[in-house]
Amino acid sequence: MILILGGTGEARELASRVTAVSSLAGRVSNPALPAGEVRIGGFGGVDGLAQWLRDNRVDAVVDATHPFARQITANAFEACARVGVPFLILRRPGFTPVDGWHWVGSVAEAARNLPGERVFLTTGRQDLAEFAGCPQWFLARMVEPPEPPMPQRIEVLLSRGPFVVDGELELMRSRRIDVLVTKDSGGSMTSAKLEAARQLRVPVVIVRRPPLPPAQVVDTVEGALGWLGR
Ligand code: NAP
Questions:
Q1: What is the domain extent for residue 173?
Q2: Which DSSP string do the residues of 47-102 spell out, in sequence order?
Q3: In what order do the strands lie in the sheet with 37-40?
Q4: Rg over CA atoms, the chain
Q5: Which of 71, 127, 147 should be mutated for ligand 1, with most atoms under 8 A from CB?
Q6: Looking at ligand 1, which residue's alpha carbon is closest to its atom 6?
Q7: CA 207 to CA 201: how far, in whole Å?
C-alpha cells in the first residue's frame, strides 16, 4: 500500500493517478478531497506514524505536503527510516525570484520588517498570531476563519483560490496595499499576487522555505510516479 501525505494540489493529482491512501491533517472543515481512500487527522507524532505504517503494511510513503508543513515531513522521514519504508518528498518548485524581493527566514522575521503600512498577508491562518503586535493595517487572506491573537486592524478575506492577476490587481488597488507578505510556497495557483505586486510596484516580503530532511526529493508528480514505478 502507498501512503500519500497530502494537503496540496500535487498530492491530489498524484492520488488521481495511483492507487493509494491519502492522509490529511484535518485543518480545513471542507477540504478538497483526493481520489481514492482518504484518512483524516494526525497520527500521533513519529511513534504513531511508525505504528500506522506497520499496522497498514505500507510499502512506500510520498510526502506531498505543503512546503511549510515542516513537522509532518520531519516525522515522516524519521518514521519511515525506523520502519524501513521507502520515503519520497514531492515538493513543487518555489516561486521564480524577482530582484528586489525582501527574503526573510521566518514569518516572525517578516512581522518585524514590514516596509509598508497596508499589508496584504497571505501566509495563512496559523501564522497570523506572529503579526498580533503590529500596528499596520492588514488584509489577511486564508481558507478558514482565524482565531485570536491577530492584528487589531485587520480585514479577513476567506478564499481558497485559485487567483488570477486581474483579480489580485483589483484587490490590491482597492485596499491601497503597499506591501505583500507571502511564503515561498510556489505553484501557479498562488503566483498571481506576485505578478500583481510587480505591476503595482508593491514591495514583496517573502519567507524562505524551511530545510528538508536528507531524503529523496522530486519536484513533479511525474517524478513521483517514476519513483513509485521503480
Ligand atoms: P505541520 O505543522 O507540519 O504538522 C503538524 C501536525 O499535524 C503533524 O505533526 C501531524 O500530527 C499533523 N499533520 C500534518 N499534516 C498531516 C497530514 N497530511 N496527515 C496527517 N497528519 C498531518 O503541518 P501544518 O503546517 O499544520 O499543515 C497541515 C496540513 O495543511 C498539511 O497537510 C499541509 O500539506 C497543509 N497545508 C499547510 C500549509 C502551511 O502553510 N503550513 C499551507 C497549505 C496547506 P501528528 O504528529 O499527530 O501526526
A1: 101-207
A2: HHHHHHHHHTT--EEEE---TT-HHHHHHHHHHHHHHT--EEEE----PPP-TT-E
A3: 37-40, 21-24, 2-5, 60-63, 87-90, 216-218
A4: 19
A5: 71
A6: 72
A7: 19
DSSP 179-200: EEEEE----GGG-HHHHHHHHH
Cβ < 6 A, ligand 1 pocket: 5-8, 23-25, 27, 42-45, 48-49, 65-66, 68-72, 75, 124, 126
What does the mean pLDDT of the chain come to? 96
Domain count across the chain: 2
pLDDT of residue 205: 98
CATH code for the domain of 122: 3.40.50
The reply to whether 135 and 174 lie within a common domain is yes
Does the pTM of the predicted model rise above 0.90?
yes
Q: Give the rounded percent of residues in the chain with a pLDDT score beyond 70.
A: 100
Give dist(CA 177, CA 179) in Å, integer: 6
| Contact predicate 184/67, CB 8 Å | yes
CA 67 to CA 188: how far, in whole Å?
14
Q: What pLDDT is attached to residue 190?
A: 79
Q: What is the pLDDT of residue 187?
A: 85
Protein residue with least CA distance to atom 22, ligand 1: 25
135 and 203 inside one domain? yes
Q: Chain-centre distance of CA 32, in angstroms? A: 14
Residues 110 and 205 sit within 8 Å (Cβ to Cβ)? yes
